[in-house]
Amino acid sequence: MGQDAVKILKLDTVELIKMLNGALAEEWLAYYQYWIGARIMEGPMRSEVEPELLVHADQELKHAVMVVDRIIQIGGTPILNPAQWVKHAECDYEEPTDPYVEAILKQNLIGERCAIKRYQQIAEFTHGKDHTTHQIAISILNDELEHEEDIEAWLTDLDRMREDFKKLRI
Known about the structure:
The protein is mainly α and 170 residues long.
């Protein structure tokens, strides 16, 4: 980004870079949480959910690219050491110790809801002050909202399957 482009930003770029680095850390953690969860997942609907979780993982990686590019454009330095991800992330990484599909989905749902808050925060911080970052935040926010909806639908389907199974046993 050129010097004049940085000058016209009507916000605290140091604070924005801090927020973006937090988002970057969270995207990497989300990528890994989706990816590893999809790999170890067990239980009903696994064959339907696993490929979709891998798509979500790929989308999280694309978000990381968008965020790191923007950090560099506004003159910042992205987090260079993966050991710093947890320190900078507000969204927790939950180790998938229970491979049951429902447990994996619930962990990912918590992560998506945290990501929604993060990108809403960035969108509000940049609204009317940094149009490029605002558009990036809104674009990623829309993806995160879609991920939340997908996960909620799968959890609903699992609940319905459970209820139908109970009816068959009666």
